Amino acid sequence: MLLxxxxxxxxxxxxxxDKKILKMDADQVAEAFQxxxxxxxxxxxxxxxxxxxxxxxxxxxxxxxxxxxxxxLKKFLKxxxxxxxxxxxxxxxxxxxxxxxxxxxxxxxxxxxxxxxxMRGLRHHMQELVEGMDEKAVNQMSLGLAHxxxxxxxxxxxxxxxxxxxxxVGLLDxxxxxxxxxxxxxxxxxxxxxxxxAKIVGDNMVxxxxxxxxxxxxxxxxxxFAELGLPDEVVAELRKGAEVSFGTDITEEDLEHILILCxxxxxxxxxxxxxxxxxxxxxxxIAPNLTYMVGELIGARLISHAGSLMNLAKHPASxxxxxxxxxxxxxxxxNKSATPKxxxxxxxxxxxxxxxxxxxxxxxxxxxxxSLCIRVDALGDDQDAKVGKEWKEVVxxxxxxxxxxxGGIKRGMAKADQKAFKAKENVEKHNEDDDAPIAAExxxxxxxxxxxxxxxxxxxxxxxxxxxEAPKEKKExxxxxxxxxxxxxN
Length: 490
Prior knowledge:
Elements: E1 2-6, E2 10-16, H1 26-32, H2 36-42, E3 43-50, H3 54-65, H4 71-82, E4 90-91, H5 95-105, E5 109-110, H6 113-124, H7 126-129, H8 135-156, H9 162-191, H10 197-200, H11 204-214, H12 232-243, H13 252-286, H14 288-294, H15 296-306, H16 309-314, H17 317-321, H18 326-335, H19 349-352, H20 359-379, H21 386-404, E6 453-456, E7 459-462, H22 471-489
Parallel strand pairs: 1-4, 4-5
Antiparallel strand pairs: 1-2, 2-3, 6-7
């Protein structure tokens, strides 16, 4: 039996001289390879092919990971087994690789637990079985090949950089929530001392900087706000508000904790800006067409919601359109009501600038073009947003046509001549009853009989017994009613 060994240095072919080992159990095979002398007696080297460099080793290792034969392995097996016409079985560590070798060269391959133990013993005594192989050199080759393979996987993996985008956009959303909480807490806390400041300064970043520079409101007169870039009108309003403020006094200890919160808000604001810039650069590099169509923030949220850029590329346009509105979709399906028309795409610029009646149509058009851009980004190699620019112009033209009222006419279709289809007054219409099959006559419903009404003193009253009376009796009653009315008048 022959044994095929794949190492970081090259391919080795060994012959099993001791046939008794094949009948041993896994534990007995392990005992047989405890010493190097026993290993040399059990195995003998047939051929060994060294790799030229790390690139050659990486190509062969990549092919082996996919259970395929590289060029080096094909040449090695053809030279040492096929050409000499050896009829021995070949023991391999991977059963899928054995099936590939059998299909290509018709070599019978073996893969059992005994073979696994043989391979383990072979690798353990590789330096003694192969002359001129240094242990340090082999370790360096293995380390270099491992690093190269890691870089190769990281470079060509479709999920490699998506993780960075997903984590960045998730952290950005968390920062926005925390910043809103911190800024609201700062305004409420410092508002007890200077409540007028919240109306004068609206931005949270500027508010925190003003509180940090000013401190107590009594220092407002002597504080220089030129460093913050505030206009003179705002500064004058600040000083005027500090003079007439109805806030309560606070201690130095309270102010100290408020200033620490101000520093925290300013730091988080700066880090949030850096993170947004980092996300923009990442999205422009990885998904330029998606970023050009809807922006880096919405594009990153779409990738995060789908799990990766490749998963997002597999979604159809209808799924991209309602991505982010799954709860409302299932609720609508359960209640048999209208399904949502948009999800995360509602915040896109093209959808936001459209009229409320046109948002559904524009989101559908945008999702159709956006799905094409996502597939180009996921499967293409271009770093330019050529496809995104072309499709964005198409969506913008569609939006303008819908706003002008000519959105019903599609591109490449002529408008129908409505005058030719107008029915003329004197033209005889085709009678469809002549061509229709004879059907059973429907049952006629009995017409409802109206209840007779009585008039008493100018009011209408229903007479329930009038249906059963004869017409003569009705005339007599009418005459009696007339006589009573005359008597009443007199």
